[in-house]
């Protein structure tokens, strides 16, 4: 190549000629200046280093581009000293293994201690198999995963609404072949935690299905009117509770039924208007029957009173027949003549009778008639 001379020395690339050296050595710029100084820089093993070659392991190779960027990534910055290092234990060992062991031990230790409230119990499973039940208080178990503990409330009252809000009406057939729409609440709690946990897959669904079957069987024994009445509903609630408890005990479900409460008992929505008309008619019929019974009781009481009075008079009549007969005559005549005008005439010298009471009554009648007709005449 004209004007350039290539020289390789100690693995470095040197250039000489008319142009300026790319490694920082000054020249004249026109090709007539002095040649590059072959003396290597202080602290290096040879001439100027090519920055695109791999870094040297010696201290002099720390100034290349790759070393600079690696220091920047580590946060060194060429003398800033910003590298983070964990504190070391005596002897120069790291605390990291000790911290890992402490965290694992703390996690395992927390799985060994259990505080069970007064309304709760705990189920302990050893390698997946049931072993025992934890009672209320402070309890200790083997660490996870050797033993696992599930703490469940057993004394708390649980309730199931039938039907639920997202279900349609529950129509149940009564004993007199009528349909009734029933909604009710079942309250229960846990009697045996081991049976409740391992005998049933879905306890709430089981309780709901058993309650529905018991309710249909109990309502089928009652008529429609008994289902609507208060006494009939109380009998149905008791029968449902007893039936449910027998079935769940047969399943060994570990569930105790506390009570069943019928919330609503209505006819089906399709016939509710007709049912109301029938109900109103029945109420009117009951009112008429009650009125007739009241009138019958009143007449009977009056008749019994008259009979009792007659019996008393008869007893007196038997003691003194003549006096009683005369007294009865006087009482009868007084009752008959009380509302009529009477004239009493002594026998013997009879004078002409002047009917003054009759004249007075006629005068009063004429006066009242004139008082009524007077305004009519004045208006004409």
Question: What report would you give on this structure?
Answer:
Helix 4 packs across helix 6 and helix 7 (272-319) packs across helix 8 (321-337). Strands 8, 9, 10 and 11 form a four-stranded antiparallel sheet that branches. The protein has a three-stranded antiparallel sheet with strand order 5-4-7. The model is unreliable at 1-33, 57-62, 75-81 and 376-380 (pLDDT under 50). The radius of gyration is 60 Å and the shape is rod-shaped. It contains nine helices and eleven strands. The chain is an alpha+beta fold and 380 residues long. A hairpin with a 5-residue loop joins strand 9 and strand 10 (179-190). Helices cover 43% and strands 19% of the residues.
What is the element layout, followed by pairings?
Elements: E1 4-9, E2 12-17, H1 65-74, H2 96-110, E3 113-116, E4 120-126, E5 129-134, E6 137-140, E7 147-153, E8 158-162, E9 171-173, E10 179-190, H3 193-198, H4 203-219, H5 224-228, H6 230-251, E11 255-266, H7 272-319, H8 321-337, H9 356-379
Antiparallel strand pairs: 1-2, 3-6, 4-5, 4-7, 8-10, 9-10, 10-11
Helix pairs in contact: 4-6, 7-8
């Amino acid at each position: 190549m004209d004007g350039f001379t290539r020289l390789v020395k100690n693995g470095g690339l040197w250039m000489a000629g008319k142009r300026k050296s790319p490694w920082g050595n000054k020249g004249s710029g026109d090709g007539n200046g002095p040649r590059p100084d072959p003396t290597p820089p202080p602290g290096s093993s040879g001439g100027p280093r090519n920055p695109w070659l791999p870094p040297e392991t010696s201290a002099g190779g720390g100034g290349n581009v790759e070393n600079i960027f690696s220091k920047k990534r580590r946060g060194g910055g060429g003398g800033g000293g910003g590298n983070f290092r964990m504190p070391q234990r005596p002897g120069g060992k790291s605390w990291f293994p000790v911290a890992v062991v402490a965290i694992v031990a703390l996690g395992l230790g927390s799985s060994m201690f259990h505080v069970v409230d007064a309304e709760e119990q705990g189920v302990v499973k050893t390698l997946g198999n049931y072993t025992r039940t934890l009672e209320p208080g402070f309890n200790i178990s083997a660490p996870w995963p050797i033993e696992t503990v599930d703490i469940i409330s057993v004394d708390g009252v649980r309730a199931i609404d039938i039907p639920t809000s997202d279900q349609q009406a529950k129509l149940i057939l009564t004993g007199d072949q009528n349909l009734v729409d029933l909604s009710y609440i079942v309250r229960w709690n846990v009697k045996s935690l081991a049976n409740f946990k391992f005998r049933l897959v879905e306890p709430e669904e089981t309780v709901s299905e058993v309650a529905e079957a018991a309710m249909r069987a109990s309502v089928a024994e009652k008529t429609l009117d008994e289902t609507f009445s208060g006494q009939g509903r109380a009998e149905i609630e008791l029968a449902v509770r007893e039936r449910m408890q027998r079935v769940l005990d047969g399943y060994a479900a570990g569930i105790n039924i506390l009570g069943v409460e019928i919330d609503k008992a209505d006819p089906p929505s399709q016939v509710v208007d007709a049912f109301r008309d029938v109900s109103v008619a029945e109420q009117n019929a009951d009112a008429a029957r009650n009125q007739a019974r009241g009138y019958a009781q009143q007449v009977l009481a009056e008749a019994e009173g008259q009979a009792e009075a007659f019996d008393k008079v008869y007893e007196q009549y038997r003691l003194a027949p003549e006096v009683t007969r005369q007294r009865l005559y006087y009482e009868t005549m007084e009752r008959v003549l009380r509302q009529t005008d009477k004239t009493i005439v002594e026998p013997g010298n009879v004078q002409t009778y002047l009917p003054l009471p009759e004249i007075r009554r006629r005068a009063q009648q004429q006066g009242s008639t004139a008082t009524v007709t007077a305004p009519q005449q004045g208006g004409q």
